[in-house]
Amino acid sequence: MAEWFHPLLALAVAVFAALSAALGLPPLAAFLAGGLVVLLAVPVARRLADSAAVPLSDPPRDPAHPPPAAPDPGRALLERLPAPLLVIARNGCIAYANPAAHAALPHVEPGAHFAHLIRAPDFVAAVTATLVDGEERACRFTTFDGSERHFEARVGLLPADPAFGTDRRAIVQLEDRTEPHKAEQLRSDFIANASHELRTPLASVIGYIETLQHHARHDPEARERFLGIMAREAGRMQRLVDDLMSLSRIEMSEHLRPVEVWSLNGIVTECVSALQPIAGQQGVDLLLELDPQDCRVAGDRDQLSQVFTNLIDNAMKYGGPGGSVRVLTAPPSRAHPNRCGITVADTGPGIAREHIHRLTERFYRVNVSHSRNKGGTGLGLAIVKHILNRHKGRLEITSKPGEGSRFTVWLPRAASGDVAQPPPPPDPGEAKPLGM
Amino acid sequence: MAHIVASFDEDLVQVQARISEMGGLCEELLSKALQSVQERDPVLARQVIDRDRALDAMEMALEESVVKIIALRQPVAADLRVLIAAMKIASTLERIGDLAKNISKRAIPLSSARPARLTTSIARMGKTTLAQLSDVLNAHASRDVDLAVQIWNQDYEIDEMYNAIFREVVTYMVEDSRLIGIGAQLMFIAKNLERIGDHTTHISEMVYYIVKGEPLGDDRPKGEPTGVDFIHE
Ligand SMILES: Nc1ncnc2c1ncn2[C@@H]1O[C@H](COP(=O)(O)OP(=O)(O)O)[C@@H](O)[C@H]1O
Ligand SMILES: [Mg+2]
């Protein structure tokens, strides 16, 4: 018998056919469907929907509901579709979510009502209406927890089978449109901010060039001085562009959940070692006082390093020479259940209250010329904030003028069971430069 | 044929789904209200004002069905708690909707005034408020007590933002008396946001109550009163 007639394959193709018919999936699916029997899809879809009939509420009280059946071929296929898919039973409960849906929507819980997962009014209205009239619908919606995310959804009906009652089941295909949306937003913000920030150093460089071309042409002493200033201004522009680039990269990845698990102490220790030489140059005591009780966090290692580097860098810069910067484990806090905290404390002049909640805004500085003189770009804390957003962390800033500042980073503890293969955590004793 | 009479569990599922749906509408109203302020868009502002009615209708419908369920099923203990909390959350959400509507009302006169620098601070406060609301709705949907407690403990951030905006607006009005009109509108918007924050903590108390069966207590960190130089983010 030719491989072609293998029933699994026929079923697979049929599911694709049903899905592409119901949802207008992209050409690949349509190609696979290749004009094959849509009719074949019906039993598969039915079996899929039946096997997915799971208990409705938590905790399950009704023993009459069967537990989810073993995966069948139709389901196995849906499992592999890259697009997030949900099957919603007539009473609104989620009957099935494929792995892509689980990845895109961390709160997916089969058996729960779909409105607990996606409560945007347009989406709720589309699913509700399709469950009633069977029409296909498309809608867009936004979610607001942490970083905003934008989705497009297409809603259709799974083919119903008269033999199994008239119960309708909706199938929903989701597409995450956050990236294109953000790219758009970023483009306009970038142009506004960057041009404003670049204008000053650029104007000064141009001014010095003109002076060098005219009055200072034959004045070697002035030339040396001006070239020094120009180099500094150009360096500032370069840092600014670097920071803007890394900020925009971070913003683009902000909605992707980090999966690798790291030792928090390891990352912090490494950052501190890498910054010791700079502390030496600036005459600051950089002290590490970590609790040996380590904490594992799910994160992007480079980004987390950047968080601590930026905070320590600020503490050294604004804490002033002769001061000390302590990096320590924060005691557990009721306001941050299940999170581990690392505090960067300095002995500098502190920050007045009205500035504190604005420090993470892009380009916000308490004292613009002070920050500029120290080579600041005004983006360090904005970068910290965006990285922490991505990691579902928080930044807590406490300060009293005259008594130094404390910046505490709170990161969620990695769940012990459900994380992806952890790569080996960095060796805490090893101090290699971070190349930032 | 399917069951004619839905089970009690099904009733509970549906009631809580309606809460999430109301929450979704609240998020949308608030986000559009903020957008109408920031983009100086009176048309959008009027849309928000009109749509708030849908939220009122949802609250009424929910209350009615809860009353019916209590009468028919006479639930006790945990189930009764869920239903009572649902009613309280629904009326809290309805109030949040009203506050979003009020913000939109302020957006209309603002849209014809000169653009004000301060709307950036308001936008930031609005974003934080919206994220807290969204988080508490997630906490409700997944019965996540930890998240609820965390939100409850974080409301002081919004209080702090309110205090900072208050000071900023006052300075602004003192500097230029022509800006008193705009300043007052912005102050009302900030106040409305601060109250939405309070309602959000109330919802987190309800989530705690649903899961734990006891109140969450009373020692929530609060923003320091304006004028004291002690700091928190
Ligand atoms: N440890 C600190 N002590 C005092 N002020 C600080 C500290 N950290 C940050 N700041 C203030 O926050 C502002 C923003 O910091 P940041 O975003 O890192 O930008 P930059 O350091 O480039 O100016 C700084 O300009 C400074 O005014
Ligand atoms: Mg900095």
Structure in words:
The complex is a heterodimer of chains A (436) and B (233). Chain A folds into four domains: 7-49; 75-176, PAS domain (Beta-Lactamase, 2-Layer Sandwich); 181-249, Signal transduction histidine kinase, dimerisation/phosphotransfer (DHp) domain (Helix Hairpins); 256-431, Heat Shock Protein 90 (2-Layer Sandwich). Chain A is 45% helix and 16% strand. Chain A has helices at residues 7-23, 27-33, 41-51, 73-80, 99-104, 114-117, 121-133, 178-213, 220-253, 264-282, 301-319, 353-356, 368-373, 380-390; strands at 85-88, 94-97, 137-143, 149-157, 170-176, 261-263, 285-289, 296-298, 324-330, 339-346, 394-399, 405-412. In chain A, the strands form three sheets. Chain A has a five-stranded antiparallel sheet with strand order 2-1-5-4-3. In chain A, strands 7-9-10-12-11 form a five-stranded mixed sheet, covered by helices on one side. The radius of gyration of chain A is 28 Å and the shape is globular. Mean pLDDT of chain A is 79; it is low at 1-13, 20-71 and 420-436. Chain B has a single domain, classed as Phosphate transport system protein phou homolog 2, domain 2 (Methane Monooxygenase Hydroxylase, Chain G, domain 1). Chain B is built from six helices and no strands. Chain B is elongated. Chain B is mostly helical and 233 residues long. The longest helix of chain B is centred in the middle third of the chain and has 36 residues, at 77-112. At the A-B interface, α6, α7, α12 and β11 of A face α1, α4 and α5 of B. The structure holds adenosine-5'-diphosphate and magnesium ion (MG). Residues 310, 313-314, 376, 380 of chain A line the site of magnesium ion.
